[in-house]
Amino acid sequence: MKFFADTADVAEIADLAATGLLDGVTTNPSLIAKSGRNFLEVVKEICGLVEGPVSAEVVAPDHATMMKEAAVLRALAPNICIKLPLTIDGLKTCKALTAEGVKTNVTLCFSANQALLAAKAGATYISPFVGRLDDIGHDGMELIQDIRTIYDNYDFQTEILVASVRSPVHVLAAARIGADVATMPPAVIRQLANHALTDKGLAAFEADWAKTGQSIL
Ligand code: E4P
């Protein structure tokens, strides 16, 4: 399972990239606004920090303008992945960019039928938002299971990129289902390494080691 960081915070991305555990980055207009930085500048900088795909989202509602925006974004770096909304215009743009060999991430997916359309449009990634579904009383993971089943039924190569991840519980559930990628806020990536018994055990080992009076180095 691949891990993407869902942020436009370059300091966080650099820190996570240094662990060797980061496979890519996803951004969206809200995350760019939160960064307070110029969109094109910050995306270009992020592309230099990671080898994997960096999703940058178009903001136009229509196909023709989406194509023009995608051309600007594609010119930023070779590891750009064009993020497109799950609308008819977004799907049309996905099909056109896929034909040109461009990586695409179809976002704001909330139903299995939407995911089916994205796969038919040749999307590299489909981004179902599990947290936002949970927020309105639906089961986000049920959607991930449905998409996994449908993609396997028809041998679609589109990767399931679980988005709107709120906690390690989402990551575990997505991994059990066999989702390809989870994109997470940096804090959630760090939480994956945490366990109270790890902390407790480490404290005990440190205390006992101190009693030996020895040193490895
Ligand atoms: C995914 O690409 C989105 O940027 C993201 O996961 C949205 O998550 P949110 O629901 O926490 O805003």
TrEMBL record:
Keyword Cytoplasm: yes
InterPro entries in the record: Aldolase_TIM, TAL/FSA, Transaldolase_3B, Transaldolase_3B/F6P_aldolase, Transaldolase_AS, TSA/FSA_arc/bac
Gene Ontology terms: biological process: carbohydrate metabolic process; ketone catabolic process; pentose-phosphate shunt
Lineage: superkingdom: Bacteria
UniProt xrefs under Gene3D superfamilies: Aldolase class I
Top enzyme category: transferase
Pathway connected to this protein: Carbohydrate degradation; pentose phosphate pathway; D-glyceraldehyde 3-phosphate and beta-D-fructose 6-phosphate from D-ribose 5-phosphate and D-xylulose 5-phosphate (non-oxidative stage): step 2/3
GO cellular component, one term: cytoplasm
GO MF term (any one): transaldolase activity
Subcellular location: Cytoplasm
Active-site residues, record numbering mapped to chain: K83
Keywords annotated in UniProt: Cytoplasm, Pentose shunt, Schiff base, Transferase
Catalytic activity: D-sedoheptulose 7-phosphate + D-glyceraldehyde 3-phosphate = D-erythrose 4-phosphate + beta-D-fructose 6-phosphate
UniProt-listed Enzyme Commission number(s): 2.2.1.2
Alphabetical list of Pfam families matching this protein: TAL_FSA
Function as written in the Swiss-Prot or TrEMBL entry: Transaldolase is important for the balance of metabolites in the pentose-phosphate pathway.
Family of this protein: Belongs to the transaldolase family. Type 3B subfamily.
The protein's name: Probable transaldolase
Species whose genome carries this gene: Sandarakinorhabdus cyanobacteriorum
Gene name linked to the record: fsa
